[in-house]
Amino acid sequence: MTTKRTSRAVAKSVPSLHPHVLVLHGPNLNLLGSREPGHYGLATLDDINRVLVSRGEAVNAQVETFQNNHEGALIDRIHQAAHDQVDFIVINPAGYTHTSIALRDALAATAIPFVEVHLSNIYAREPFRHHSYFSDLAVGVVSGLGAHGYELALEYALRHLPNRTSHGSQKTEKAH
Ligand code: DQA
């Protein structure tokens, strides 16, 4: 059986003492600000990313953001995250939430803990949005709190990151 710890050890490269969080945005989220503001609000993706990156800087954490409209590009970025020793992922899979077994499999394969974020409350919308291929693997889900949901997910990640030692090994703190 492959444990989370084993698969991260396989992906080991240069260890960093700084927490490393990757924020992934799925398809159409590049249009935030003008896209269906009744569901997604008026903040642009740049607005959202700026807040997250500066929060990371304030606590000496590396917060990287990545948006793509293509499933394969998001999958490749998750594989890369394992090589880069990313500690935690915050992901809004957007439309892929409801369709993508391949994206789910990428997160399962790398075993990097993640929080699933949705700007809108997917359970208060059309029935096809009620099912997520990610939620049962996620540490948690934030849905319906708009852009603030990303900040809450990042705050959670920063509090519950594995403790790194100066030798690069990790002690995982059980969240909750
Ligand atoms: C979304 C909800 C999805 O159903 C939708 O396809 C999106 C955005 C959200 O953030 O509310 O693109 O993930």
Automatic annotation (TrEMBL):
Give UniProt keywords alphabetically.
Answer: Amino-acid biosynthesis, Aromatic amino acid biosynthesis, Lyase
Q: Which Pfam families match?
A: DHquinase_II (PF01220)
- Indicate which residues the UniProt annotation says bind substrate: N92, H98, D105, L119, S120, R129
PROSITE patterns (UniProt xref)? DEHYDROQUINASE_II
Residues at site: Transition state stabilizer? Answer: R35
Q: Which residues form the active site?
A: Y40 (proton acceptor), H118 (proton donor)
- Give GO BP annotations, semicolon-separated: amino acid biosynthetic process; aromatic amino acid family biosynthetic process; chorismate biosynthetic process; quinate catabolic process
Q: Which InterPro entries match?
A: DHquinase_II (IPR001874), DHquinase_II_CS (IPR018509), DHquinase_II_sf (IPR036441)
CDD domains found in the cross-reference section: DHQase_II (cd00466)
Please indicate if the UniProt record lists Cell division as a keyword.
Answer: no
Reaction(s) this enzyme catalyzes, per UniProt: 3-dehydroquinate = 3-dehydroshikimate + H2O
Q: What GO annotations for molecular function exist for this entry?
A: 3-dehydroquinate dehydratase activity
The catalytic activity of this protein is classed by the Enzyme Commission as 4.2.1.10
User: Is Metal-binding included in the keywords of this UniProt record?
Assistant: no
Query: Quick one: which pathway?
Result: Metabolic intermediate biosynthesis; chorismate biosynthesis; chorismate from D-erythrose 4-phosphate and phosphoenolpyruvate: step 3/7
* Function comment: Catalyzes a trans-dehydration via an enolate intermediate.
Q: Which family does it belong to?
A: Belongs to the type-II 3-dehydroquinase family.
Please describe the quaternary structure of this protein. Homododecamer.
Q: What is the official name of this protein in its record?
A: 3-dehydroquinate dehydratase
Q: Organism, per UniProt?
A: Thiobacillus denitrificans
Starting at the broadest rank, the lineage of the source organism is:
Bacteria, Pseudomonadati, Pseudomonadota, Betaproteobacteria, Nitrosomonadales
Q: Identify the coding gene.
A: aroQ
